[in-house]
Design goal:
The chain is α/β, with parallel strands linked by helices. It is built from 14 helices and 14 strands. Bound molecules: pyridoxal-5'-phosphate (PLP).
Length: 395
């Protein structure tokens, strides 16, 4: 059958090559340690599951309004007020089918053909594809390790031209494991003043910050920032609810209404009983979230410490999300165990084949010197995997 040019232009996920090979090896009985996960290893807290079961049994099985049930929009508004000091009315909020859907739909609703989107590296692999599917153009800005892989105000200023329509920010960052400080965000906001550039702020890892890191929503920085920002968040990462498919977007009413029109024809709305349970999660979830966060924090600092003790591996302490993103460029260009390692993908493939540890190459995120290791797995697995990596890099 004919496949559209649009669909043909979407490449298969560049991170899949390693993860599908890891699965294959596992199925063949190989003891693979996987640091490739992009989701929490915890189960959804019981009280949230119970709320969904109750909703199902109570007959919450029909369509909801396309933009989401009123109670959930109110619970999101309360959350944004309480956690982020942001005031949104329910009509400024839309419930989407996962934050990935929020990203896609908000881009479809706000960008035109030829619009440019400033996208700093490292970026989540979905962003450039979502931008291109809207006919817009990702303008990738290469950041550096010296600046913690964050875009500087100078870089932002230099990237703006009359086609610039959006800046896409993701803090805490996947795959980078870092978080912008409030001051860093404020200096970016200042550059945008006087422009009509929209900020898409993907805050899905908001609850997973470590050490002294303080999370601040971009939209809360100033009235100017509030008026230009679409805030995206969801339940997947903080509540270990990836399979429930619930995300949300908050922002200026005209953009949210436009998203609602698209959504009414594309997906209708999110799953009804999942929305009912999400109300309970948002209102009563703080304790469950904190338990998981503390566990991630322990794992992240241990993984980072182990990585830095390996020669030729440089890793910044993760301050957010659940990823270490070390620079392994000292090992790129080497021959390891007979394999020529010329790229981050070669590195990941050789590590998997020879030492049976799965990591994700950095190149698809725009960072060819790095690899991503997820610490959404047990301390025991982290120890075992790092022992293997250490030994492998010595060969
Ligand atoms: C996981 C993730 C999301 C969205 O996840 P959903 O499951 O669709 O809510 C969005 N952005 C980033 C950067 C992510 O890592």
């Amino acid at each position: 059958m004919k496949v559209s040019r649009k669909a043909q232009a979407v490449p298969p996920s560049a991170t899949m090559a390693v993860t599908s090979r890891a699965k294959e090896m596992k199925a063949d009985g190989v003891d693979v340690v996987s640091f490739a996960a992009g989701e929490p290893d915890f189960d959804t807290p019981e009280f949230i599951k119970a709320a969904a079961v109750e909703a199902l049994k109570g007959g919450q099985t029909k369509y909801t309004p396309a933009a989401g049930i009123k109670e959930l929009k109110s619970a999101v508004a309360e959350k944004l007020k309480k956690d982020n000091n942001l005031t949104y009315s329910p009509e400024q909020i839309i419930i989407n089918i996962g934050a990935k859907h929020s990203v896609y739909e908000s881009i479809q609703a706000t960008l035109d053909e030829g619009d440019e989107v400033i996208l700093p590296t490292p970026y989540w692999v979905t962003y450039p594809e979502a931008i291109k599917l809207a006919g817009a153009v990702p303008k990738i800005v290469q950041t550096s390790r010296d600046n913690g892989y964050k875009i500087t105000p100078g870089q932002l200023k230099a990237s703006i031209n009359d086609k610039t329509a959006m800046l896409l920010l993701n803090s805490p960052n996947n795959p980078g494991g870092f978080c912008y400080t409030p001051q860093e965000l404020a200096s970016l906001a200042e550059v945008l003043e006087g422009t009509d550039i929209t900020v898409l702020s993907d805050e899905i890892y908001e609850k997973l910050v470590y050490g002294k890191t303080r999370f601040v929503s971009f939209a809360s920085l100033s009235e100017d920032a509030y008026n230009r920002t679409l805030t995206i968040n969801g339940l997947s990462k903080a509540f270990a609810m990836t399979g429930w498919r619930l995300g949300y977007t908050a922002g200026p009413v005209e953009a949210i209404k436009a998203m609602g029109r698209l959504q009414s024809h594309m997906t209708q709305g999110a799953v009804t009983f999942a929305q009912v349970a999400a109300v309970v999660a948002l209102r009563k979830g703080d304790e469950a979230i904190e338990k998981m966060r503390l566990e991630f924090e322990k794992r992240g600092s241990y993984m980072c410490e182990r990585l830095n003790s390996i020669e030729g591996v440089i890793c910044d302490e993760p301050t957010g999300a659940f990823y270490c993103f070390p620079d392994v460029s000292a090992h790129i260009g080497r021959t390891i165990g007979g394999a020529k390692v010329d790229t981050s993908l070669d590195f990941a493939q050789a590590l998997l084949e020879q030492a049976n540890v799965a990591v994700v190459p950095g190149a698809p995120f725009g960072c060819p010197n790095n690899v991503r290791l997820s610490f959404a797995c047990s301390l025991e697995q982290i120890t075992k995997g790092l022992d293997r990596i250490e030994k492998w890099l010595k060969t």
